[in-house]
Every structure is written in C-alpha cells, then in structure tokens.
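Consortium newsletter contribution from the modelling node. Members have asked for a concrete example of what our holo predictions look like. Here is one, prepared for the adenosine-5'-diphosphate complex that several groups have been discussing at recent meetings.
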Amino acid sequence: MKAIIEIRNISKSFISKNNIITNVLDDCSLDIYENEFVAIMGPSGAGKSTLLYILGLLDKADKGNISYIFNGSIINPTKMSDKKLSNFRNSNLGFIFQFYHLLPEFTALENVMIPSILAGNTQKNAMIIAKELINNFRLIDKINNKPNELSGGEQQRIAIARSLINNPKIILADEPTGNLDSKNADLVLDILHKIKNEYKITMLMATHSNEIAKQTDRIMYLKDGKISNYETN
Ligand code: ADP
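And here is the predicted structure:
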C-alpha cells in the first residue's frame, strides 16, 4: 500500500478569549494510503474537524508536518504561498460538510460549477462537467433550484458533485451524514463508496456513528489529542 498523506507529529491548540488553552491534537502521526476510506471517530470535541481542516489546508498545525504524495512526488504544502496553497487545495482536495455549505444565492448547477471556474475552466466546460455529475446523482431536474429549494439529502448530493468537479485525489468529509435521516444517510454513504471506487479517490470521513464507521476500510480514533488506535474493518 502506498501512502498518499503522511502526517507527522502534528499538534494544535486553541487559546480562548479568557486565555484558556485547549490542546486539541498532541503529536499525532499517521499514514493514509491511496484509495482507502478512513473513518475518523471520537467524541464531540475530540478534534475530528480540526484534523480534517488541517489536512484540507483550511487551518494550520502549530507543529508537525503534512506531506502529500501524488504519483511519486512528495508535496509539502506548509511551504507554499497562499495563492499556491489555494490552487493546490482547489485542484486536489474535495470537501463535504455536515451542513453542505452551498452558496444560497446560486443555483445547484452554479454551486457545482464554481470550483471548476476558479480552477480556470471555461463556463461552458464547467457547465458540461457539472451537468454530467448532477445527472449521475439523479438531480438533473433540480439544477436550477437554489439550495433552500432542495431537501437535505439533495443538498448533500449537490455538495458531493461540487467536491468532485476538479477530479480531486482526496475527499475530506466532515460528518457528511450527520444532518440526514437514515435513508438519506445510507444513500450518501453509498455514493461515497461508489465514487471512492470509480474515481479511485482517497476518502477521509469524520463521524461519531459506529454504524457508519464500520462500513469504511479503516477506523482511527481520536482521544485526548492522540490517535489512540486504529483498526482495519
Ligand atoms: P470534533 O470535530 O471532534 O467535535 P473539533 O475539532 O470541532 O472537534 O473541536 C475540538 C476542540 O477544539 C473543541 O474543544 C473545540 O471547542 C475547540 N475548537 C475548535 N475550533 C476552535 C477555534 N477556532 N477556536 C477555539 N477553539 C476551537
């Protein structure tokens, strides 16, 4: 198995307004392998989102290193300028959030197209790819709806289509089923498995649900700032 992400000695604390320090991640190291589906588990406040945000380069660790290994080249984003970092993020990483984070003033189609246009694609091309993705998720009749005209399950499928539009190598999903009923949660999980296999994506998903974590390839637990153990399903 080849590592696609190497996490080395990552630590992260937050300091609150009244100067209380919360040590969220404490010297965490882990390899994530190409095309695996990893569940990150742990109680609320354990640092699951913090770890995903650091891996997604949306936040920085206080200490430690993260390397991405794409086709044999080692990339260390901590040394990149902000512009390079955001290009790297937009081209290689896809994000799915519990509350979808769709832009309310844009239609479903526009929401899916935006990362493609930001990556330099033409409007016309972005639209073709976005429509194809939305069609795969059986939402073609909803492309002109705004997010508030879609159900939670539909919004999450649009958010998944958006996460895929630039052919990411890695998808980071923060409680993607946390706001859905069990039927829609199963549907979303099914889609995540399908895209992992079809597009050979590496998938990291924070969840507090045992049922959901059991369906992934590997579970890692976060507790007291440490990756306490991990097991293969
Ligand atoms: P989880 O996703 O496992 O529920 P989080 O990563 O969201 O946990 O949070 C871990 C801890 O870090 C919590 O105690 C949370 O309050 C704290 N925390 C997260 N983000 C911030 C922030 N921006 N400022 C201060 N504290 C934060």
